[in-house]
Amino acid sequence: MNGYLSKFELSGKVAVVTGASEGIGRDLAIGLSSVGADMIISSRNEQKLREVASEITNMGRRAEIFVADVTKQENIEDLKRYILDRYGKLDILVNNAGFTVNKMAWDITDNEWDLMVDTGLKGLFFCCQILGSIMRAQNYGKIINLSSTFCRSLVPGRSVYAAVKAGVSHLTEALAVEWAPHGIRVNALAPTATKTPSRAQALQGDILNYLLSRIPLGRLAEPDDLICTAIFLSSAASDFITGQTLFVDGGWVAKG
Ligand SMILES: NC(=O)c1ccc[n+]([C@@H]2O[C@H](COP(=O)([O-])OP(=O)(O)OC[C@H]3O[C@@H](n4cnc5c(N)ncnc54)[C@H](OP(=O)(O)O)[C@@H]3O)[C@@H](O)[C@H]2O)c1
Question: Which residues constitute the domain of residue 162?
Fold first, then answer.
């Protein structure tokens, strides 16, 4: 053994996941904690966060909750203070919080535009900036931004969401270049449609059949697919990787 497996361990690492109250964020928080990370899970819904934290502590792992709205920079500053107070450091930041509507571009309202952009792009940027400053002081850190296959491909009804995710992937490259001298690796994880409870109803019938026809490996993404990728991008195993968007999409983007 050359110790390769141990490079994937996250024992002693401190990780924050935004939007961790449900869906992919919840699964990623549980997944990272399962390989040793101490967690701070954040979103706007305290009750749901408590339930996720219980799942983590029931596994014998540490989880703190912090209620924050990523569209409010003062909330992110408060989260930074909380991280430093509780753990004194931050190794892993998963920017997962997102908001989407599925509507033709003609029908998008001003408020819907703001919610998608302010949550998924502006909020993500200020989480990178404000929480990433902890990593800069340490000269090491891993940031994982949730992108999507729609950063590189399009379906009707997802115009603004696709623009946000293209922005996320490009911003990821820009921050990777700028922050490499500080030891901060910035990558994006881009899933195809993922079987989470919040999407289960939407992923049926004709829509499901269409999605499956676009995915060469013939199935939707499972939470485990994303967890394994997030563990890799969070761990020392990926220390020479930065600025990448890693598609976890069964071949969707490759198919064009
Ligand atoms: N599911 C998919 O098929 C899929 C595919 C590709 C990419 N993605 C991306 O993966 C991420 C998670 O998707 P999901 O399907 O799991 O979403 P989801 O089930 O709708 O959950 C969204 C999460 O974001 C949080 N959130 C929303 N607005 C927030 C805000 N202003 N401040 C803080 N937290 C906020 C929500 O928590 P609270 O309501 O408690 O705040 C919730 O925990 C998103 O970035 C999404 O674009 C998802």
Answer: 11-248
Q: Which residue has the tokens 């939707």?
A: 220
161 catalytically annotated: yes
How many angstroms separate the alpha carbon of residue 86 from the centre of ligand 1? 25
Residue 200 has pLDDT above 90, yes or no: no
Q: How far apart are CA 42 and CA 96, in angstroms?
A: 10
Tens-digit pLDDT profile for residues 48-65: 999 999 999 999 999 999
Q: Which CATH number goes with the domain that contains 118?
A: 3.40.50.720
Residue 138's pLDDT is 98
The answer to whether residue 119 is domain-embedded is yes
Task: Please state the atom number of ligand 1 nearest to the C-alpha of residue 48.
Answer: 40
Closest by CA to 37, choosing from 4, 76, 64, is 64
Is 43 contained in some domain? yes
